[in-house]
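task queued by scheduler; priority normal; single chain, no ligands, no partner chains; default sampling; output format set to structure tokens
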Amino acid sequence: MTPFFNWVHLWNTGAAFSLFANGGGWQRYFFIGVALLMSVALTRLIFNKVSKRDGISYGLILGGAVGNLIDRLFRGYVVDSLHLGWQTWQLPVFNIADIAITLGVILLLLSNLQVSMIPNLPGSK
């Protein structure tokens, strides 16, 4: 499509960036289990009293995890279709769910970094 972006169609049986894609089949059930556990944990976190920023982060991660989980349950693999690269620099193929997970993790890290950089006020714990 462009010199830096292409639509492709890739069946990813592994994790993000095709990690463990050649695992022989065990990874499908492993990643389904991990996604289910993470979905339950993130849902519980969202319904606890968390900041709006953390809630958005958890929601992005949850949405991406559920999106990939649905693909994995019904297809046995995740469909990746976005490819970015320029000349010899190439990113692995990914999908919208991967973007949501990555953005959620980045926002969560930035939120925690910002909180840890605020000095303790006198009289606070």
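post-processing summary
- The chain has one domain: 5-117.
- The helical segments are 26-47, 52-75, 96-117.
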